[in-house]
Specification:
This protein is 55% helix and 16% strand. It is of the alpha+beta class and 407 residues long. It has two domains: 148 residues, Beta-Lactamase, CATH 3.30.450; 155 residues, Heat Shock Protein 90, CATH 3.30.565. A five-stranded mixed sheet has the order 6-8-9-11-10. Strands 2-1-4-3 form a four-stranded antiparallel sheet. The protein has a two-stranded antiparallel sheet with strand order 5-7. A hairpin with a 5-residue loop joins strand 3 and strand 4. Helix 4 runs antiparallel to helix 5 and helix 6 crosses helix 8. The chain is rod-shaped and about 135 Å long.
Length: 407
C-alpha cells in the first residue's frame, strides 16, 4: 500500500525549520540593535566624563554644574572604566582610584593592582577605542579605557542562547513529529493486516463450511448445485476484497453509478448475516435511485460496509436502527447514515477518522480512516459526523458531486 502524507510531512518539517530560523534571526537583529543603542549611550557618558576632566584640568574653580555631573552621572557609571596618563599607563594610586567597576581580589598590593589593571586595559581596548582627554595646547594628558556594561554583555550572548533554544525546539519537534508519524504508519500497517484478515475471514470460513457440506451431499445433485452457487458467491466476494486492497494507493477508475443501488447491495449482504450477530437491527435506505455520481463501486461499497459495521458496534439495544438517506441538495448528493447507538463524545468526533484510533477493546481503528480516504481523496467528496448524542445515536454525512458536475 502506498502511504500518503509524504509531501505534507516534508512541508511540516520545512515549516518548523522556517519558524525556528525566523525566531533566531528576528531575536538576533532586535538584540543587536538594542546592544548598539546601549553602547552608544555608554560611549556618550564616557565622552561626558572626558569633557568634565578636561574642564577640571583647564579651570581653576569648577562650578556647581560640574559637581552635579560628577555626583549624579559619573558616579552612576555601571560599566568597567580605567583612567591612564597620556601614554596609556595606569594611574591608580590606591584601591578604587583611577578605575571603576572592575573586580579584583581584596587586599591586593599597588604593584599587583597596576599589573592587573594593565592586563584588563588591553581587554577593554579590544572592545572600544579609548577616549582622549586633551589640554588647550592639544596635548593628550589622559585616556579613558572602557568596556561594555554587564547588561550589554548579556544581551550580546542572549540571541545565541535563543538560537540554541530554537535548535533544541526544532530537534524536539522533529523527533516528536517523526515518532508520531512512525507510530501512525505502524498503526496503519497493523490495521491493514488485521483488516485484510477480517475481510478474508468471512468468505474463507464460509467456503470451508460449504466444502464440508459438499462432502456430505455429494450424492444429492440438487444440493450440490445450491452449494456450488453459494461457493460462487463467496469466491466473488474474495475477488472483490482483492480488488479493494489493490486500489488503495493508486487512482481508481470512477464511473457513473447510483449511490442508492450501491448502498442497497451492501444492505442486502448484511441483512442475510444479521441473525448470526444476535442483534435485531433494521437496516434501510430511502431516497432517489436515479441520482448518480462518479463512483468506484468496490471502494464505495467498502465505505458503506464500514459505516454499517461501526453502527452495529455502537448499537447495544435489541431494537437497533440503521437508516441511510440519499437526496440531492445544491447540485450535490448528500448521504446520511443514522443509527440509535451509544453516540460519540463531542471531543472525539475528529479522532474517529484518525488511523489507529478505536473505542473498541479489539478494534484497530482503520475502517473510518480508510472510509475518509476513499471518500475525500478518491471521490473528491466529504465525510464527517453531522451530529451525535450520547446514548441516542449518531449521524454521519457523505457529500458527493453529481455526475454532470464532475469533469
Amino acid at each position: 500500500m502506498k502511504m500518503s502524507g509524504g509531501p505534507a510531512s516534508m512541508n511540516i518539517k520545512l515549516s518548523l525549520v522556517v519558524i525556528g530560523a525566523a525566531i533566531a534571526i528576528g531575536t538576533l537583529y532586535y538584540t543587536q540593535n538594542l546592544v548598539s543603542k546601549l553602547q552608544q549611550r555608554e560611549t556618550e557618558i564616557v565622552k561626558l566624563y572626558a569633557s568634565s576632566l578636561e574642564y577640571v584640568a583647564n579651570t581653576e574653580s569648577p562650578n556647581s554644574d560640574l559637581t552635579f555631573i560628577f555626583q549624579n552621572i559619573i558616579q552612576r557609571i555601571d560599566f568597567p572604566l580605567i583612567l591612564t596618563d597620556g601614554e596609556g599607563n595606569v594611574t591608580a594610586t590606591a584601591e578604587g582610584s583611577g578605575y571603576k567597576n572592575i573586580e579584583h581580589k581584596p587586599g591586593i598590593s599597588l604593584t599587583e593592582l597596576k599589573k592587573f589593571l594593565t592586563d584588563k586595559l588591553r581587554s577593554l581596548e579590544s572592545e572600544h577605542s579609548p577616549i582622549e582627554i586633551k589640554l588647550p595646547n592639544g596635548k593628550v594628558f589622559q585616556k579613558i579605557y572602557y568596556g561594555d556594561s554587564d547588561i550589554v554583555t548579556r544581551l550580546k550572548y542572549y540571541p545565541y542562547l535563543q538560537i540554541i533554544f530554537a535548535l533544541l525546539f526544532l530537534l524536539i519537534a522533529y523527533l516528536s513529529f517523526s515518532y508520531i508519524k512512525k507510530s501512525e504508519h505502524s498503526n496503519i500497517w497493523v490495521g491493514m493486516s488485521k483488516e485484510t484478515a477480517h475481510q478474508l475471514g468471512t468468505p474463507i470460513s464460509s467456503l470451508m463450511g460449504w466444502n464440508e457440506m459438499l462432502k456430505l451431499s455429494y450424492s444429492d445433485p440438487d444440493k450440490v448445485l445450491d452449494i456450488s452457487e453459494e461457493i460462487d458467491g463467496d469466491l466473488t466476494r474474495l475477488n472483490k476484497i482483492t480488488n479493494r486492497f489493490s486500489k488503495i494507493g493508486s487512482k481508481p477508475e470512477l464511473k457513473d453509478d447510483s449511490p442508492y443501488l450501491a448502498i442497497e447491495k451492501v444492505i442486502n449482504y448484511f441483512q442475510r448475516r444479521l441473525p448470526q450477530l444476535g442483534k435485531n437491527v433494521n437496516i434501510s435506505v430511502e431516497g432517489s435511485k436515479e441520482l448518480q455520481a462518479k463512483l468506484n463501486g468496490d471502494l464505495f461499497e467498502w465505505v458503506v460496509e464500514n459505516l454499517i459495521k461501526n453502527a452495529l458496534d455502537a448499537i447495544e439495544r435489541n431494537d437497533g436502527i440503521i437508516k441511510f438517506s440519499v437526496e440531492e441538495k445544491h447540485r450535490q448528493i448528500e448521504i446520511e447514515v443514522t443509527d440509535n447507538g451509544k453516540g460519540i463524545e463531542s471531543g472525539r468526533r475528529k479522532d474517529i477518522f484518525r488511523p489507529g484510533y478505536s473505542t473498541k477493546r479489539r478494534g484497530w481503528g482503520l475502517g473510518l480512516s480508510l472510509s475518509k480516504r476513499i471518500v475525500e481523496d478518491y471521490h473528491n467528496g466529504k465525510i464527517f459526523v453531522k451530529n451525535s448524542v450520547l446514548n441516542e445515536g449518531t449521524t454521519f454525512k457523505i457529500i458527493l458531486m453529481k455526475s454532470e458536475n464532475i469533469t
